[in-house]
Structures
1.
Amino acid sequence: MNLEKEKIRSLKALLETAREVVVAAHTHPDGDALGSTAALCLYVKEQLGRPVTCILPDTPPENLDFLRAPSVPYLFNDKDPQKAAATIQKADLIVLLDCNAFSRTEGLQKPLEESTAPKILIDHHLNPDSGSFNLVFSTPEISSASELLYWVLKALDPENTPSGAIGMSLMAGMTTDTNNFANSVYPSTFQMASELIASGVDRDALLEKLYQSYRQNRVRLMGYMQCEGLRILEEGAAYMILTREIQERFGLREGESEGLVNVPLSIGKVRLSVLLKEDGDHFRVSVRSKKGTSAQNLAQRCFHGGGHENAAGGKLFPGQDFAPGKADEYLCQTLKDYLR
Ligand SMILES: [Mn+2]
């Protein structure tokens, strides 16, 4: 990984002189957002001895709660927006991970943008909003923000490979963003994994926590959706709509439908898979595609979102994007038009 020496020097100087660091990531934090923020917070606190707070837009899902760094204070904007804003205001250094712009932090956007502290971006999404940051590490050709952070930490301290809780957090973020080495995997990704295992990260224990610790509700919901909720279009798309009613029927908790959107891609004819999940007044949209079909393009054009070439997301608003109650018809037509 070729990281400019000058940028690493600037980062080092900023981290080593900061008196109050705030580390933030995107809304609805996933394994990469939680893993990368935990790793950086632990590095700042334990290796550099600087005070740090991790501030996230939403409380993490229960199944990923183990990725919270135990010794680091966390604030969640959905629980305590005043304290989050006040802490951001006091910070003299801000680091944003795993998203390309402050707008991806939703409720935190305003306090983060209004802060006069230096701002650092460490991310792997396309089109970073570089103008809003003093220092930008942006690499789309990498597995995850956690992998990019791994190479940044190695550049900061070439003698040491991240290990312990830092190593585990980075491995977790990379593993979840690649769907356990299924996509966005580069030579550097295997190198990172290899070095982390050599440094003592217990991958078996991590995999059990990530993939073998769910409640049975998740498995039953996945079965139901594949049987009853899956629509497949001639054009090569598949979609599912996870309504509030179905979520309630299965007692679904945040994070428990993770991975469902990938399942239809196991069908040979399906090149594009979309999952709509009802959330308050809107639908959260997840898009996955096979090579040669762009999930990112669809999310950007039709779902007010974006992301990566083969894994992207966005939102849909009933009453605005389509007539209330017509999500199915709208999605069906949108996918047909997109693949035509
Ligand atoms: Mn990521």
Note: The CA atoms of residues 235 and 339 lie 6 Å apart.
2.
Amino acid sequence: MSLHEKTTEFLASRAVRLHHHLWHQIRDTWNWARGGMTEVQKKKIEELGWKPDYPSQDANRRWDTTGPAGEDFLFMHRQMIKKVKEIQSENGGNMTSVSGWASVPSPNSSEFSVPEAWEVYGAEGFNRFLKVIKSDDYYYMVMREWQRTYTDKSWLKGKTLAEVGAKIESTIHNMMHMRWCDRPWDPRTGKREESIGQDGNDISKKWDDPRANWLGHTYSSHVNPVFWKLHGWVDDRTEDWYEANKDSSNLEKVNLRGVDWYKGELVLNSDLWTGGMDFGHEPSPQMIKKMEEVSEVLFGKNDSYHFYDL
Ligand SMILES: [Cu+2]
């Protein structure tokens, strides 16, 4: 199970890394009340064309399940999946590698075994968290239950796509990232580090190496093959939601900016935020420069978004 080297090359490019990273970081730290960004930073980001339509969390760091941010999450990643499938297929790569898990791998899976927890000196809470989410019990008592809920047509019925997206993102999605996350390493030397990994704000060139594919960071996670298995699983839930609601809720399938999408009363937003551009467009040198400017504005922000934030 692997990504074609052309696919990896595309995903590891600075432009793609910046796009995925900034998209997550901005929407998740946008809320001023949360303290993630100052008004000055926000104004600059707006001028650069990267203001998100909706922040994903409220002032208390609770995920917004009533606003449309959850739709952005599903839509942006659907654009990513489409692009990756295209590259993989054009190069004769294995298509199963870019399709979602049929079900979340149990602790018995040998192909997707869970990397061991590591310990970070002085980070008691983080260490405990890692041990818990990587345990067999966590799979049986939490993940499997989430999976049952999110594939359950009676649960999906009548819910907005935004609510489904936000709930999946903040629960099983984030925890799958961290459950299959391995001990961080230095991409240049391969040397393992007992740390919390790439710093939230660090986008120095050393992280552009294709070996930088740590699942715990938004700049690197999408270069990791497991990303496509878990995001494919998430994406398939969108289709479950459609099946659960198509007969009762006037849902229509539409093509929106290159991907299959939906229109109807359970869809809150007719347009979706994917960052300063659609994912998959060949970014021009100006776009890359702009993204570097956005990161500069963000650099030193008070707060970063991590998959392990609870
Ligand atoms: Cu992502």
Note: Residues 5-298 form one domain.
